[in-house]
Amino acid sequence: ESVLDLVRTSAVASRTIVHTIGIGTNVSHALVDGLADAGGGTAESNPPSPQLVLMWYSPSWKLWPSTTST
User: Fold this and answer.
1) What is the pLDDT of residues 16-59, one digit of tens each?
2) What is the pLDDT of residue 64?
């Protein structure tokens, strides 16, 4: 079973939407876009930047917006 098939099957079974983010200059757009498509979500790809803001959320734990600078 391929990763895309696994995501597709799992997302449907668990009523989950998968959104993907590809960061960097060597992002596999086929993988980022394919995973989002298989999970019924959206995909974004961005080059690295000096300032990156991410927000993560899970029902069991929370990490609120944080800023990292390089």
Assistant:
1) 999 998 888 888 999 999 999 999 999 998 877 655 555 444 45
2) 47
What DSSP string describes the chain?
Answer: --HHHHHHHHHHHHT--EEEEEESSS--HHHHHHHHHHTEEEEEEE---SEEEEEEEETTEEEEEEEEE-
- Backbone CA torsion sign across 62, 4, 12, 23: positive
Contacting residues for 2 by C-beta, under 8 A, at least 6 apart: none
Query: For residue 60, what are the contacts with CB-CB under 8 A and spacing of at least 6?
Result: none
Report which of 65, 70, 59, 62 is spatially closest to residue 23, judged by C-alpha positions: 70
| pTM, to two decimals | 0.65
